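User: Just a sanity check before I run the rest of the batch. Below are the structure tokens for the first item. I only need the designed sequence back.
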């Protein structure tokens, strides 16, 4: 559908929040807790954090939880009885205040969860999720959305995008999908007609740091290169980078068994960890941290664009902010481009 543009008064934003809540939707929004801003279930508009650049964890946690039960089973003499997760029990969710890089992160995530088998649990969660994006009017040195085809007002992945027009201004609302239109239809009084608005001048200035196409081309012949060892020497393999990433989709399946009953659980996994590819035999095809670092960069900037036609990075900068030893992805990608 073509993008419809409306104006939402700053003083109407709380009414919009309350109206969505009254419709029975669960709202996740950035909230300050224990010194960090993260997506939390929010009951009151006043609980939403506004003074931050980026949440520590990405919004993916709503559609792809850190751990989730996918089935229950019971063993008996007759065999194993399986009860799969009831998809009807997945509730309608609104993620309020999603940054454009987080919303864009759902595209690679969806590509991974649908490249062969369609992941019905992920797809159902995402179908039941409405993303209300908020453009960025400020950034920090870790942000690089403009280097990976994004921008601080990008609408890709969002159902509705709100851009504040100045520090204390009202909001331009871009209605991008049917889900976004449903919000407008249910709250017609809160969405006024918008005149001509130059949204660009209200956005953060995020400089382009590298050329991702050049990097992709270079990586095609970069498997055996000393740069992987040089770059990963200080990596301690903690896995923080993948944990905070909006596009990382690796998971492990574990059975939690109690007597004859058990649950099969999907848990996030992490390519930075030394046991990620450890075989039962003891052999590990990615024995060294340099091989794990190489895999992380090749997967996001070479294999995914080649195989899924989408890059595995939305430029949120979380991995650089979270890394305890200051592995900076912009520096490393720039070095690869210049190598
Ligand atoms: S690789 Fe780093 S910058 Fe890119 S999307 Fe993941 S966390 Fe963000
Ligand atoms: S967060 Fe830093 S130290 Fe930890 S695995 Fe990632 S790159 Fe290595």
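Assistant: Here's the designed sequence for the first item:
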């Amino acid at each position: 559908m073509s993008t419809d543009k409306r104006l939402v008064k700053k003083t109407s934003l709380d009414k919009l929040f309350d109206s969505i809540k009254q419709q029975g939707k669960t709202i996740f929004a950035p909230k300050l807790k224990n010194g960090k801003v993260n997506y939390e279930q929010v009951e009151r508009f006043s609980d939403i954090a506004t003074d931050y650049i980026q949440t520590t964890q990405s919004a993916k946690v709503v559609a792809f939880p850190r751990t989730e039960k996918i089935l229950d089973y019971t063993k008996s003499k007759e065999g194993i009885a399986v009860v799969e997760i009831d998809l009807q029990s997945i509730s309608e969710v609104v993620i309020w205040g999603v940054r454009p890089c987080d919303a864009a992160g759902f595209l690679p995530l969806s590509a991974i969860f649908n490249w062969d088998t369609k992941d019905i649990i992920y797809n159902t969660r995402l179908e039941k999720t409405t993303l209300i994006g908020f453009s960025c009017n400020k950034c920090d040195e870790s942000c690089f959305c403009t280097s990976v085809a994004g921008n601080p007002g990008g609408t890709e992945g969002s159902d509705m995008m709100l851009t504040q027009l100045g520090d204390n201004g009202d909001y331009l609302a871009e209605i991008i999908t049917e889900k976004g239109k449903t919000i407008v239809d249910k709250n017609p009084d809160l969405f006024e007609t918008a005149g001509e608005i130059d949204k660009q001048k209200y956005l953060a200035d995020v400089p382009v740091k590298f050329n991702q196409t050049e990097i992709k081309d270079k990586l095609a012949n970069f498997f055996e290169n000393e740069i992987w060892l040089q770059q990963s020497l200080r990596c301690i393999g903690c896995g923080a980078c993948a944990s905070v990433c909006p596009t990382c989709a690796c998971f492990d399946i574990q059975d939690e068994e109690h007597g004859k009953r058990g649950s099969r659980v999907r848990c996030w996994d992490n390519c930075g960890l030394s046991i990620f590819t450890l075989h039962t035999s003891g052999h590990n095809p990615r024995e060294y941290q340099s091989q794990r670092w190489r895999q992380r960069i090749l997967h996001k900037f070479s294999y995914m664009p080649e195989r899924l036609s989408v890059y595995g990075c939305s430029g949120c900068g979380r991995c650089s902010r979270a890394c305890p030893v200051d592995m900076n992805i912009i520096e490393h990608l720039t070095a690869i481009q210049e190598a």
